[in-house]
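Predict the structure of Pre-16S rRNA nuclease isoform X3.
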Amino acid sequence: MKLVKPIELFQKFLKSGSKEQGRLLGLDVGQKYVGLAVSDTCNKIASPLSVLVRKKTNIDLMARDLQMLVSQLSLIGFVVGYPFSLQGQSSVEAVQVKLFMEELRKTGRLDGLCYTYWNENYTSKCVEALLDPLNLHPVESKTIMDKFAAVGILQDFISHFLGVFVDQYSHSLLGYLDDMNRNLKSEDMPRE
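Done. Here is the predicted structure for Pre-16S rRNA nuclease isoform X3.
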């Protein structure tokens, strides 16, 4: 596994744009659970997938589960939620996320895959606010919260880069169409 910048993962994601386009997996790494979300086959929408139980003794089992998902879902990379500090300092949670990813990397089961960190600030809080009125059992609420926090992380990543890509694409497309239009008009002009 290789840590890459978000734009590098997105570029890899764009290059995989063949018939069997690669998908992304979002991870919300917590102390007890890792929430998972997956992008759709068009890579526009993130959906909840599952929750893995996280223990110090089961990192190899988690790596095997992720390896199976990579194969089944044609995954090309992971978008890992990371609690970036507004003050620029690493929090305990941030250190835990990095340690978890390093442990996964050391298993060797996910070699060749790229991952990046993406801001997860407030994703769990937003999901929690939505779930509170439902009065769910605490365990059910926690697993739903972790999956949907992963959805929030992955969807934000996809929307951010697709928005930038679409804006750049439409801008260049509009410029191209304007140039064509000017050329057509000048060709249609009677010559003296």
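The radius of gyration is 21 Å.
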